[in-house]
From TrEMBL:
This is Transporter substrate-binding domain-containing protein. It comes from Duganella guangzhouensis. The keyword Signal applies. Residues 32-251 form the Solute-binding protein family 3/N-terminal domain. The keyword Magnesium does not apply. SMART domains: PBPb. The lineage of its organism: Bacteria, Pseudomonadati, Pseudomonadota, Betaproteobacteria, Burkholderiales. PANTHER family: PERIPLASMIC SUBSTRATE BINDING PROTEIN FAMILY 3, SOLUTE-BINDING PROTEIN FAMILY 3_N-TERMINAL DOMAIN-CONTAINING PROTEIN.
């Protein structure tokens, strides 16, 4: 698998006006809520309860700072739009991109991700670079994820946005599309969940490496943001972060936990 020739610099080339910090809005009266997306194994529902790597991290930080705010899960597109539109929401584990940088206050990093193009092994698809990806008849991407935004900014017009990673994998397995773009840490869990052998799908192109954070509203109190960052730093020092990472990503190297 070869790295994509189109550098991440394309995404980083955001006009200065776009990344200038906007005026901080007045905080709303309602209490801040914590939202995660349904993105297994980062965050998903199990037996009616939110769970996953990012949920475990949030709960451990909450335990340390004595915060009892409930973690709620929504489809990513809805959670992100609510946060961007000014709702008093903290998002768990969104990717920190230049496009999103001025919209939130960031605590982390909490996870290093590799975004990869996958195809059915039986298709024998081979891609040398992102230009080859443009030639495909529809490329599955998670709706409003950073990869969707990245490829859209790069000028891709053959994207097929899908609301969930599970649906995206099902469409690939059914042969409805030849390729999907997915974070590497998601694939093993999704394949096990679908009862599919790991060798049915193979990586054909690496797109980028990027990091996940906790994203707070711009008007979040300094003391609260500092509490979360300090608790996370303590978890990194005492080994808790690495232990949670190994629990959820036994197939991946420890180096993907954070850098």
């Amino acid at each position: 698998m070869r790295c994509a020739s189109l550098a991440l610099a394309l995404l980083l080339a955001v006009p200065a006006a776009a990344v200038a910090a906007a005026p901080t809005p007045a905080p709303p009266r309602e209490s801040m809520r914590i939202f995660g997306a349904v993105i297994p194994p980062l965050s998903f529902m199990r037996d009616g309860t939110p769970t996953g790597y990012c949920v475990d991290l949030a709960h451990e930080i909450q335990r340390r700072i004595k915060d009892r705010t409930r973690v709620e899960l929504l489809p990513w597109a809805r959670a992100y739009r609510l946060a961007v539109d000014g709702a008093n929401i903290m998002l768990i584990c969104p990717k920190r991109t230049p496009e999103r940088e001025p919209l939130f206050r960031w605590v982390g990093p909490v996870l290093e991700s590799q975004s990869v193009v996958y195809a059915l092994r039986s298709s024998r698809l081979r891609l040398g670079n992102l230009a080859d990806l443009r030639a495909l008849d529809g490329v599955l991407v998670p709706r409003d994820f950073y990869t969707h935004q990245y490829l859209r900014i790069a000028g891709f017009t053959n994207l097929d946005p899908v609301n969930s990673s599970q649906t995206m994998l099902a469409m690939l397995l059914a042969g409805r599309r030849k390729a999907m773009v997915l974070d590497r840490e998601q694939l093993p869990f999704l394949l096990r969940q679908a009862g599919v052998s790991a060798d049915v799908v193979e990586p054909v192109l690496r797109v980028m490496t990027i990091h996940s954070y906790f994203a707070f509203p711009l008007y979040a109190p300094d003391a609260l943001v500092a509490q979360w960052q300090q608790a996370l730093d303590q978890m990194r020092r005492d080994g808790t972060l690495l232990r949670i990472h190994r629990n959820w990503f036994p197939d991946l190297a420890d180096s993907t936990a954070h850098r």
